[in-house]
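This follows on from our talk about sequence and fold. Go ahead and set the record down below:
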Amino acid sequence: MKRLIPILLAALLLTACSGFPEEEPSPSASADPDEPVLTKRNIELTVWENPGAGEEFIQQAAAVFNQKYPNIRIRCVAVEPSGLLSRIASESASGTVDLFTVPHTDIRQLADARLVLPARDQAKTRSAIFPASAQTATVNGILYGYPVSAETTALFYNKQLITEDELPSTWAGLADFAKGFNDGDRYGFVMPVGSAYAAAPFISARNNRPFGLNGENEQTLNLETSAALEGMSIFQSLRSAVGLSSEELSLHSVESLFASGKAALCIAGPWNIARFTAAGINFGVAPLPAFPGEEVGSSSLTFARVMLVSAYSENPDEASAFAAHLLTEEMQRLRVELTGELPSVDTALRSPSYIAGFAAQMRNAFAYTSLPAAYGFWESFGDVCARIWDGANMKEELSSFWQVPESEPEPE
C-alpha cells in the first residue's frame, strides 16, 4: 500500500463494515442547496471494482462517505475485469449491484443496452472534471457516469540531463535540442513512433480530430486535412533529429533508454512512472511541445476509468451521490496516492510533483472515442506512423490505410 491508512480513517472503515447503526438516523440536513437529499432508511450499496488498489480506494472512500451518511453502507466487491461486461449484462437486472467501474470505452455499449444511468447533475459533474474526462464518459451528448481517474501521454524529462528552464516549448525547439544533445548512445529525445497513442498528437494538430471534434462520427476521419498533413510532416521531420529508426524506437526500447539515463526526453504515460522511479531516474513531467504559431502545447489522447450507476439500482440517488463523492478533491487525492493514476479533476496536488505536468497536458487532451471502429483505426495507425517515420510517402499512407465504414441504410 502506498500510504498507511490514518487511524481515524481505519476506525471509520471498521464502522462502515460492521453494519448499520442500531437506531434510525436523523435527516442529513444541509444549508447547501446543491447537497443531495438522500434517504433516511438504512440501505446498502454494492460496488464492483477491480481487485487491488482500486478496491482499497473504494473501501476508504466508503468510510468517509459513511461518516456523513451513517445509514448508507457501501459494500465493495472485487470483480476481475475479464468478462465484466457480460457479467454486468447478466446480473445487473437482478439488482445485486448498484455501481461498477469500467474503462470509458465500454460506456457506449452499456448505454446503448440501457444498463446504466446518466449522471444525475450533468452540468455540475462536467464542471468538476477536465473537459477531456467529461468527453470520455459522453455518448450522444449525454454524460454517463463519473470519471474517477485518467491517463494520457506527456513529455518526461530527466532532471540530471535537462532542467525545467531548458525544456523546449515547440517541436522545432525539441528537434534542435535533440540534435545538439545526441552523442553516441545518448539521445536528446525518443518516443515509441509505432505507438498510435504516442503519435496521436501529430495527426491531431490544430484541433484536427479523427472521428470529429466529439469523437462520434465514423465518417469523419480528417486524415488528409491541411492540419493532419502539417502535423505528420513535423512528426516525420523529427526522424533526422532523433537519428533512430522505428525498429530502434519500439516501446520497450524507448522505455529502456529513458530508464537507463540515456535519453533526456521521451513521450510516456503514468504507466511508466513505477519503472522510471525504480530505476532511480529523477524525472519531471511537462506538457507536449506546441505547433508553429501556437502558445498551447499539442493535444494528446486520454483514457478514463468511470464509475457508473446501474439502471437497475433500487437506490439510484444514493448511488449517484456516492459516485459524485469520488470526484471531490479529497477523494481524488486519495486515489492518486493509492493507485498512481491521474486525477480526473483539475485539482492542485502537492505531491507527487509530476502530477502538475500531467494536469497541464490533460487541459489540452481529447478522449479516445468509444466508437467500435476506433479500436481498429488506432491499432492500424501505429503501423502507419512507423512507416512514415522511416520515410514512406506520408500522403499515400494516410489516404490508403483506413476505409470509412459504410453507413447503414435508412429503414424504409
Remarks:
- Confidence is low (pLDDT under 50) at residues 1-31.
- Residues 372-389 form the longest helix (18 residues).
